[in-house]
Amino acid sequence: MLVPVIDCDVLVLGGGSAGIAAAITAARAGAKTLLLERHGSLGGMATAALVHSVCGLYFLPNESEPKLAHPGFPTEFAARLVSVGAASGPVRMGRVYVLPHSPPGFAAVCDMFISESLNLSTHLHSELIQASVVDGRLQHVEFSCRGVRSQVRARAWVDASGDAALCFMSGIDTYQSSSSSLQRPAFIFALQGVDVLLLDEQGRIRLAAIIATAVREGRLGSGALGTQVRATHRGSEAYVTIDLAGGANFDPTNPAQITELELEGRRLAIEIFTFLKHTHPALMEAHLSAFPARVGIRESRRLRGRLTITGDDVLRGTDSDESVALGTWPMENREKNTGPKWLFPRDNRPTQIPLGALHSAEVSNLWAAGRCISCDHEAQAAIRVMGTCMASGQAAGAAATIQASEDRRTAPSVPQVKALISKVARA
Predict the structure, then answer these.
(1) How far is CA 144 from CA 147, 148, 243, 259, 277, in A?
(2) For residue 60, is pLDDT > 80?
(3) Is the Cα dihedral 379, 384, 386, 389 positive or negative?
(4) Hey, what's the torsion of the CAs at 340, 271, 294, 49, to 10 degrees?
(5) pLDDT tier at 364 (50, 70, 90 boundaries)?
(6) End of a domain among 257, 290, 323?
(7) Whole-angstrom Cα distance, residue 107 to residue 219?
(8) Single pTM value for the model
(9) Number of structural domains in the chain
(10) Which of 5, 169, 179, 293 has the smallest number of Cβ neighbours within 10 A?
């Protein structure tokens, strides 16, 4: 069977926060760009997994007002979310600021950016199935949509899949933390009919106490510990977040195990909701309105790049001459279901993300963005959030564009990447 061939300058795999930033940046810079996404909508974890807050958009606060950390696409995207009513503005939660949003609104904003980008083609429902590397360069890939195969040839590539799928299929070295230390996946579901006035701080404390008591007395399983219910302030809507246990040998890329995780998430969601509906006054009139399209994976495979960001780099706020983006979120370790363990960097300093952490050490024209950039387990707990993913995606898209335009093996310089980001920035 003849396989159609698509030629482009830059291919971006994955249409989440990192991928949309990389694709829009490349297209605006003049590169003929193709974005492949396996779901039916863009947005990644923000839409498919119902992760309803954009974290890492703002500097860690040294003052009372939130300050946006990432010039260019991340700032523009946040402004668009607010302007169309998909977000109302930043909210302080403890020592950090987040931007709560509507997942359907997030997907709609992604669509807006795609429709405005003349050099960008997007293929949804498209799954990568093969990659070919020749002489240290990625030459072409094949993807499938409903059983129909197509081939893509590109000059430069960005892996924003979240699982380093393009890196892995290229046969290059990737790494993944042990099952015992992987960040726990999240299962998030939506409720309607919630009495949101009863979910103030005291109401949430009461809810946590009810769950802890029920677990201790055997009325709920231990998987319910750490469950959080958060009102969205959009009528009677609320989201419930459960941190799931992957198991002793959990591998988030194993199909049998990820299936079990999805089934367990839905089972737990129904168990917890049914229990709370009869025990917490805020939920007595509530109904379950939406499950996620997929469980929220926080950590899986990562690229092994020319440089690797370490946990020590995060905590020290280590300066880097190669910095092309910033991470502005603390280490949020979720290795247990008793809630996050926070570690904040010295003086709330941002994490420097060097160009070498986005660039494959083995394949000269392959870049990574988002949670699969080159970093260790500790650093990944800080850089995986959406604001940082957009910032790294923007940088990877710029780097890939420069490399594609010059059709060279070597990486562009840091000043070149920064200059291109500034050139195409609209915010």
Answers:
(1) 6, 5, 32, 21, 43
(2) yes
(3) positive
(4) -50
(5) very high
(6) 290
(7) 38
(8) 0.96
(9) 2
(10) 5
